[in-house]
Amino acid sequence: MSEGRQTLLPDGVDVPFSSIAAALASGGDGTHRRADGRALMATVVAVGPHERLCDAAEALRHLGDGGVRAVLIPTGSQPMPGARVASNAIALRGLEPRFVDNAVAALRLSSLPTLVWWRGGPPETLDAVAALADRLLIDEDDPRGIWARALPLLDGTPIGDLHWTRLTRWRSLVANFFDMPEIRAAAAGFTQLRITAADSIAAALLAGWLKTSVEAGEKIEVSLADGTLGLPIEEITFGDGEQALELRATPSCTCVHTSATIRGHRSMSQYVPLGDQSLAALIQEELRIRSRDAAFERALHALVAGS
Amino acid sequence: MRQPTSDNPLQDNLRIEPTPGPTTMVIFGSSGDLSRRKLLPALYHLSRGQRLPARFAVIGVGRSELNDERFRASFHESLREFAGVRDERDQVADSLASRLYYVSGDPGDPAFYERLRRRIADLDGSEGVLYYLAIPPGAYGSVVEGLGAADLVTTPARGWRRVIVEKPFGTDLESARNLNRLLHRHFAEDSVFRIDHYLGKETVQNLMVFRFANGMFEPIWNRRYIDHVQITAAETVGVEQRAAYYETAGALSDMVQNHLMQLLTLVAMEPPIAFSAESVRDRKLDALLSIQPLVDERGGTPTVVRAQYGDGWVNGSGVVAYRREPGVDPASVTETYVAMRLHLDSWRWAGVPFYVRTGKRLPKRTTEIAIQFHRPPLQIFRNVSATSVAPNLLVINVQPDEGISVRFEAKLPGTRMQLAPVMMNFRYASAFGTGVPEAYETLLLDAMLGDPTLFARHDFVEASWALISPIHERWLREKPAEIPQYEAGEWGPAKADALMAHEGRRWRTL
What's the pLDDT at A29? Predict the structure, then answer.
């Protein structure tokens, strides 16, 4: 690794490519310590710039004992080819993009799903790893460029996006309101959707989801405002005046306060936890998804069509 | 199973499972041990997991002269004591507490039900009402009749009325039938949820997945490959504060009739045609009905062993005999241990014994199902390996360490051909990196969602009593002055070992 940068897998050992399997078998650090009773679940191949992979490595370290093999592939210039192994994680460096798929093919767990976690890099690398992926998870600050590249892959590879993953709790809270017939009836007349968010991509996906899901969604006018709490989504108001659903993150950023106002009467006020929004928790959630996500795809198409 | 609310367009592809519709949960016995230890903490955890509906309320009911505020305070206390909630400013706990209400009164008084009706009507969530009878079974009658007389059980045009009852579901076949008749006078069977918390455990649910979602196990799940099955539910605790109940029940009614019969039928059942409540429960009932009677033609019970714990030593402490426990008759012959051998009349299981044992004050707390396979037909290593080949074993750990283990033979490293058994373990706690929900969380949620798959059906309960009651009756007729004793901290009486030993088998070392 180059000097002045955080080391990927700081607890690991450098090994030649040919010794990766032996290093994994010995527990990564040569101690032969392995977690007992570990059921292997999936391979996660994280691809991205070095700095962004350090976060990913830390998140995947948390999942390591949950049976995930992590393969970390930094993009950008690399000093010399090599590998570093720690526990059940492998960091590869100096790979030419055209050989990335070969490396992944050699290292992924047999007969178990491979999730490619895309954190940025040359588009041609995406093409190479996507062919080996059972799911492709995009995670760029502004993913619109890579979405355009990834959309044609949809028929062969289910695609997700971490901006969408961050919406799970919020979507569930909005959906819970719609279990009530009077809310569904009132919502048919909702035309205003106001979202306060630090993550404009997540906000746009949320808007796309609602517009493509609810009755008369095409009439919904969306207004976005910048958040101040630093949360991807801070506040959602769906409806107008006398009738609206309101969801607002608390200042502690740990809970959401929800309430519904129907015919001027406010009810269903409650605090609900926002849940663990750490990178590890988000990836854990993504590992449970094994098929195409129709709601995400609808939201994505709406967003791409609208941009 | 859990279906999203079909006319809610936003439930499509939600990653968090559907939440129930608007619900008011009415807990009879809300200040009791079950409510404080299990129900209220489970509701809190469901709330944290975003599994409760937006319109949700709890009405605690009891004779205690509490009000809403005091009930809420006791809710916070139970969270501190049993759910590990330390934060005084836990907004989720506060939010849930604000939806707790209390109605005090005598369940035998019609005016009480009128107050309850008004309270339910005043609350958000009155479309669905779930009555939880966390009260002694002797009080079920007056509560269910009271609810019926006050017309609090009629399903409204939009909504539902359901009832959860706790075991014991009767004390014998006749009382179980009476209880079912009582419940059915006011609730349809699909609105009655008989809770057996064993069925809410992940491993128990996983047993069906293990058997019916994997092609490799079902072909060997029969008498051709399986030598016998052992089901063990061992407790280290004694009778604790339950002497009054336990004296009338004993291990046979307390554990075998419900929990262990549920486990046995999950192992023995044929594949259901779908993972639907009725299909699964039909096949479990078939398995139960196929069990041969446990009382023989001469009225004897040669395949059932009972015993009672004496003085002994458990978990590093000396413990007193059952008869010296507070509230226990010093001459009690109530069994605290039962072991039995069962045979099933079915093509799949003909000739395969199921050994079941349960007891209090045993050396360790564990519940497991062990399936022992036949040895290989030819012992080709007997001339080269000093050790004999152990039969393959599949162990399903129900508690406390939920998981599945497989024992198989492996060659010890070295130049000699020497064999040794090894265990391959799958543990829920570590395999998925996420917590395992408490059984009551799963079961409460299922009841709110109207999914009875993990609850006991009336005919299962009655068939189980029909199997067990004759043993009780036989024992009552015998009226022994003494019951075999086992030392607390040991694995039961010698007769339980003999039950297997004369067939060349032995209980698994746990």
Answer: 56
Q: Is there a cis peptide before residue A181, judged by omega within 30 degrees of 0?
A: no
- CA dist., res. B169 & res. B253, Å (int): 10
Interface touch B47/A272, C-beta < 8 Å: yes
For residue A75, give the 3-state DSSP assignment: strand
**Positions in chain A short of pLDDT 70:** 1-4, 28-38, 64-66, 78-79, 307
Name the β-bridge partners of A247: A236, A258
Q: Which of A38, A179, A293 sits opposite B5 (nearest CB)?
A: A179
Q: How many whole angstroms from its chain centre is CA B444?
A: 14
Q: Kindly list the residues from chain B whose CB atom is less than 8 angstroms away from the CB atom of residue A271.
A: 91-92, 94-95
Question: Within the 112-131 window of chain B, which residues sit less than 8 Å (CB to CB) from chain A?
Answer: 124
Listed residue (B360, B365, B361) closest to B249, CA to CA: B360
Q: Do B158 and A169 touch (CB under 8 A)?
A: no
Q: What is the mean pLDDT of residues B473-479?
A: 85
Decide: residue B313, CB within 10 A, 0-12 exposed, 13-18 middle, 19+ buried. middle
**Among B332, B350, B331, which residue's Cα sits nearest to residue B342?**
B350
| Element containing residue B446 per DSSP (H, E) | helix B439-449
Question: Global pTM?
Answer: 0.87
B293 Cα distance to chain centroid? 23
Higher local confidence (pLDDT), A307 or B240: B240
Burial class, B211, CB count within 10 angstroms (exposed 0-12 / middle 13-18 / buried 19+): middle
b/e for B360-370, b at 16 or more Cβ within 10 A?
bbbbeebbbbb
Q: Which of B259, B343, B374, B502 is catalytic?
A: B259
In this structure, are residues A109 and A94 in contact, taking their beta carbons and an 8 Å threshold?
A: no
Q: pLDDT (tens digit, 9 = 90+) per residue, B168-187?
A: 899 999 999 999 999 999 99
> By three-state DSSP, how is residue A199 classified?
coil
Contacts of B21 in chain A (CB under 8 A): 179-180
How far apart are alpha carbons B63 and B58 in whole angstroms?
Answer: 16
Amino acid at B136: P
Q: How far is A59 from chain B (nearest CA, A)?
A: 12
Cβ contact (<8 Å) for B430 and A65? yes
Mean pLDDT of chain B: 91
Within an 8 Å CB–CB cutoff, is residue B10 touching chain A? Answer: yes
Q: How far is B187 from chain A (nearest CA, A)?
A: 25
Q: Which residues on neighbouring strands pair with residue B70, listed in sequence order?
A: none
**Are B432 and A66 inside 8 Å of each other by CB?**
yes
Please list, in sequence order, all residues whose beta carbon lies within 8 angstroms of the beta carbon of residue B195, skipping any fewer than 6 positions away.
B164, B165, B166, B167, B443, B447, B455, B456
Q: Would you list the DSSP string of A12-41?
A: SEEE-GGGHHHHHHTTSSSS----TTPPP-
Q: Render pLDDT for B70-126 as a digit per residue (tens, 0 to 9).
A: 999 999 999 999 988 887 788 899 999 999 999 999 988 999 999 999 999 988 667
What are the backbone dihedrals phi and psi of residue B61, each rounded to the nearest 5 degrees, phi first?
-130, 140
CA B96 to each of CA A6, B56, B116: distance values in angstroms, whole numbers, following the listed order: 44, 9, 20
B259 noted as active-site residue? yes
Contact A270 B10 (CB under 8 A): no
For residue B401, what is the nearest residue in chain A, using CA coordinates?
A37
Report chain B residues whose CB lies below 8 A from the CB of A174.
Answer: 10
Taking the C-alpha atoms of residue B303 and residue B467, their distance in angstroms, rounded to an integer, is: 13
What is the per-residue pLDDT across B1-10, written as a single tens digit (0 to 9) for each?
A: 334 445 888 8
Note whether B39 and B27 are within 8 A (CB).
yes
Q: Does B92 touch chain A (CB under 8 A)?
A: yes
Provide the pairing of β-strand B337-342 with A233-240.
unpaired
Q: Is A278 on the interface with B (CB under 8 A)?
A: no
Query: Nearest-CA neighbor of A281 among A162, A199, A124?
Result: A162
